[in-house]
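B., you asked whether I could sanity-check this one before it goes into the benchmark set. Here's the sequence:
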Amino acid sequence: MTARRHVHVLFTGGTISMRVDPGTGAAVPAMSGEEIVARVHGLRREARLTLEDYARLPGPHVTPHWMWRLRDRVAEALADPAVDAVVLTHGTDTLEETAFLLDLTLDSEKPVVFCGAMRTVSDPGWDGPANLMTAVRTAVHPGARARGVLVAVGEQVHTAAEATKWHTQSLGTFRSPRGPLAVLDHGQVVFQRPAFRAPALKARRLVSEVDLHTMAAGTDDALLRASLARGARGLVVAATGAGNVPPACLPGLRAALAASVPVVLVSRCAEGRVAPLYGYEGGGQMLRDLGVIFGQDLPGPKARIKLMVALGATSDVAQIREMFESAPA
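And here's what the prediction gave me:
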């Protein structure tokens, strides 16, 4: 008989830990890891579990430096020879950012799987137990090794590099441009794509002074200049279309580049890569000529996290450009 794998489960809060406060009628974090696991029928038969109440935060309370500390704790758990995999619960509002930070920086083939919930224990159809079960089943699956950090929600498993919260309330809130990496089929995790992950970035620390700016019709450079004035170390611009900005933004972008502040360009569109297609003022070709870094198909929040990590590895803009532009598409 094959020995059950040992999974370390870190509970960090989010809707999966919430119940409705009778006084306010609104959901708040309330449940411990033991309380959650006690409501997941058969979970302890799937693996030997070690439970750790790391935090009890709603997703919007998470900060980049908190993510970095969590990353260190996960790395510590993965370094334990007795631990085969790590599962984390997390608020879905910022889950994709935390998962992506860990995916960028953890250098282990052991599975790391995030999960969360869209409904609380007080709601009919609480999805927390099913998602936690899927996460643990994914973590112990032999095919989960060397795939980077994964996200298991709504009977689908996505890579952290691709997963994006797509819907405000749907139980299947996460989507990936290339579709799910795996699905839950009659209770079994079935992988649909070959294993792949990019090499980890060797960051010594996290540089959190990176601002994200979303372009819209008529946007000027006032907020870009405000970011520079308050000491931003990097900027991410979520541009229109394939990577174009209003002309009034250009003076602020030029000021950033002149100050050796890296500027990463992504699109505000849900899917597709940025490219230097247009030669008009503010078009992608002009931005390329100015020295803007093209962030491929990363959404803005993830590009911001990656720039924080990149700046923690180097201040050389050329090296940062390589981290973004030579990454697999």
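One thing to flag: The two ends are 42 Å apart (CA to CA). Otherwise nothing jumped out at me.
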